[in-house]
Amino acid sequence: MGLFSDSPFDGICVIVLIILIVALFIGVAFVSVYEKGTFSDGSWYFHYTDKDSIEKILISLVIRASLDTLKDAFFGIGSYFTKWSPWYKSKDDIAMNIFGNLAKQKLMAGKLDCCIAVFLKDSDVKNVSQNGRDIHLYPGDLLLSGLKYFVF
Fold it and tell me: TM segments (predicted)?
């Protein structure tokens, strides 16, 4: 039995292997572009959320602005991001960065189960970071149509 035998199972294994190799290549290519910063007019920004919210974002192609300045929009009305990617920071670190003292509670509620990475012009995003936190604010709702983005 070689790699290309008559068994249908072997054929499926070859197809799965090819798909995995292609997916790995695409992932490595993206990380390479991300690390080298070859996009000179902006940066990748990461918006963490729960499963229900990511579905709504993908259906509407809009990241809705946080509006309640007493509960969650402490730095103003807008769509919140961080430059902390899940490749370089732990979920616990990202939760502390985004939610501060509410990190553990938000983790338990699934608020970091999903992430959408969006490539934005740096001039369109306000850096509201303070006290070692990395937080960026896009004013208002962010329309994803026409932007580079991916979900994981």
Answer: 12-34
Does residue 13 sit in the same domain as residue 86?
no
**Angle at the Cα of 51 from the Cα atoms of 55 and 62, rounded to 5 degrees:** 35
Range of the domain at 144: 41-151
Report the predicted TM-score, pTM, of the whole model to 2 decimal places: 0.71
Containing 119, the helix (H) or strand (E) segment is: strand 114-120
* Whether the Cβ atoms of residue 23 and residue 63 lie closer than 8 Å to each other: no
Torsion-angle region of residue 133: left (phi > 0), alpha (psi -120 to 50) or beta? beta
The whole-number pLDDT of residue 117 equals: 95
Same structural domain for residues 10 and 57?
no
Six-digit token string for 6: 């008559």
DSSP per-residue codes, 7-21: -HHHHHHHHHHHHHH
Q: Into how many domains does the chain fold? A: 2
What is the three-class DSSP state of 73?
coil
Does 41 or 12 have the greater pLDDT score? Answer: 41
Beta strands (DSSP E) in 4-151 are: 43-49, 62-63, 79-81, 114-120, 126-127, 136-138, 142-143, 149-151
